[in-house]
Specification:
- The chain has seven helices and five strands, in the order αβααββββαααα.
- By secondary structure, the chain is an alpha+beta fold.
- Helix 2 (18-25) packs across helix 3 (29-37) and helix 4 packs parallel to helix 7 (109-119).
- It starts with 5 loop residues before the first helix and ends with a helix.
């Protein structure tokens, strides 16, 4: 996990801490950390105390957004760092429209993954 720069931090509209994630998903914090280790979520250190934060857009009520894990895997395989993945996911793309993170939340994951695969070419 890396500390996020101000530019990328500004792209993400809202953040959740691991205890917030655990509460929303009805799991304990240890399991929330495991989601990070398993690559199902990504987190960065931010704020005064450098606590781990996950974009709120990655959680859909009581579950991880559908398609996020596969998209993160594709980006990781393309050599993207956690911060680069966040920048890509939260940068507006006029051809989607919106951001890749919004498209995932709206169940348009196929198009997002297609674009993530194209980054490797």
């Amino acid at each position: 996990m890396t500390e996020i720069d101000a530019k990328t931090d500004a792209l993400v509209p809202a953040w959740l801490t691991l205890p917030d994630i655990a509460e929303m998903l009805d799991i304990d914090v240890v399991r929330a950390r495991q989601l990070l280790k398993d690559g199902q979520l990504i987190a960065v250190r931010r704020g005064e105390n450098r606590a781990l934060h996950v974009p709120a857009a990655f959680i859909d009520e009581d579950k991880v957004v559908k398609g996020l894990s596969g998209t993160l895997t594709l980006l990781r395989d393309d050599g993207y760092s956690d911060e680069e993945m966040l920048e890509w996911l939260f940068t507006p793309d006029p051809s989607l429209p919106g951001t890749p993170a919004q498209a995932l939340a709206e169940n348009r994951g196929t198009e997002v993954r297609r674009r993530a695969q194209a980054l490797a070419l």
